[in-house]
Amino acid sequence: MSKRALIEHRPWLLASVVAACAYYFLWNNSIGELWLFLLKGAGVGLLAAYAFKRTKGLDGGILVLALALSAAADTVLELSFEAGGVLFFASHLTAIVLYLRNRRKKTTPSQKLLALSLFVGVPAISYALSGDAMIAVYAAGLGAMAAAAWMSRFPRYRVGLGAVLFVISDWLIFSRLGSLDLGVLPDMLVWPLYYAGQLMIATGVVQTLRGELPAR
Question: Model-level pTM?
Answer without folding.
Answer: 0.90
